[in-house]
# Entry
Amino acid sequence: MNLKKLIPFILFAFVLGSCGQSTHQQEGIVVQKKDDVNNLTEILLIPNISEDEISNKNAEELEDIAKNSNGAYYHFPRGEYKNLKVGTKIIVYWDGSQSASSPPLRTADKIKEVSTQ
# Structure
């Protein structure tokens, strides 16, 4: 088979193989952290917010802010990201699936701390 005829098939296989593997991401500040959910850690992340806007807020107020700001809960195995603290700016990567709750619950595939410098 001619190599020029084989290239389109290789490209098609590559594109087809990458379908369904899209990774979504959200950047924001961790405003809550709980370590008690079925051996998982759960965080509430709110995008586009400053630490001043979340200080002195109770859990219900933070959840209301998250609902109005496209925030989300993320969970991950308890042993991972032990040093993650409330107030940390992060990027969370997830597969796109989420619960129908408000704010939604998503499974974090990866968490990356964002430098504040």
About this structure: The radius of gyration is 19 Å. Residues 3-18 form the longest helix (16 residues). The chain has one domain: 22-113. Residues 86 and 103 are 18 Å apart (CA to CA).
